[in-house]
């Protein structure tokens, strides 16, 4: 297990518990009471830490290297029914954007999402989860295909942002994201969006418009990352904790501002502590959202989606 800086008290207690168990196994000393006391203290410490997380600590959890990524969710939810589709039919296949058909609970979905890597080699292969324009064009191609055949769209968002390189700008990064947003607004099939990690800027919005938008508990969704915000306002990354609080980027902040529909709870400690429970909970929310929309007519579906997004940002004195 890899520990974040605020999780070090948990690590110390787990180490103590391990040593206590070893002593009990290697000697005749009865350490049952001691182990029980350490276990209780460990549980209390976990509850105290994870129930009082700051915005920055939730950002750190959303980036945990053992956190389930898009493909992990797809494999757990779809099993061997997932068929990946490739290419934008214009430039090339973007490995940072996953897309394809799969079944969840017997229902077919067109699934899209950003994919990060697990180690140095795969992170480079996936471009650190930062899609180029062809990635967004691939996603749009698959969404239009889903619309043609009446298949609902499921989008998993997990990106530090769209790739900002000059070659991406040359190929129309801004236009590709803007095109996706307008096309998703008027797509004639249900769209369910789940933010499973980082939801940064236009890179997230490019596949983030949906009838139902859910966030896992320890994720974030914002126009800019805390580090970048800190570097702009304070000319340094040292104020990223303050920036995270000011940006109101956590799932509870998003729900309070009515920018998402619901929060998907995570196991104590984060999604990586109990992946199976996380996957089951995500599936429950996906199917719940789909069942609420499946009987709507195309006109009702699009009208409700447009109304939902037109109300965002309204301000009354």
**Unreliable stretches:** none
**Helix and strand element order:** HHHHEEEHHEHHEHEEHHHEHH
Largest sheet: 8 strands, mixed
Strand content: 5-15%
Mean pLDDT: 95
In angstroms, what separates the terminal alpha carbons? 49 Å
Q: Number of helical segments?
A: 14
**Overall geometry:** globular
Classify the helix fraction into a percent range.
Answer: 40-55%
Care to count the β-strands?
8
| SS content category | alpha/beta
> Any idea what the radius of gyration is?
21 Å
Question: Your description of this structure?
Answer:
This protein is of the alpha/beta class and about 325 residues long. About 50% of the residues lie in helices and about 15% in strands. The chain contains 14 helices and eight strands. Strands 1, 2, 3, 4, 5, 6, 7 and 8 form an eight-stranded mixed sheet that branches. Helix 3 crosses helix 11 (about 240-245). The radius of gyration is 21 Å and the shape is globular. About 40% of the residues are buried.
Task: Please supply descriptive tags for the structure shown above.
317 residues, alpha/beta, 15% strand, 8 strands, 14 helices
Short description:
The protein is an alpha/beta fold and 317 residues long. The chain is built from 14 helices and 8 strands.
Give the topology, please.
Blueprint lengths: L7 H19 L5 H19 L4 H8 L7 H9 L4 E2 L12 E8 L2 E8 L5 H6 L7 H17 L3 E7 L6 H5 L2 H13 L5 E10 H5 L6 E5 L3 E3 L3 H8 L6 H8 L3 H6 L5 E3 L10 H19 L4 H13 L7
Parallel strand pairs: 3-4, 4-5, 5-6, 5-7, 6-8
Antiparallel strand pairs: 1-2, 2-3
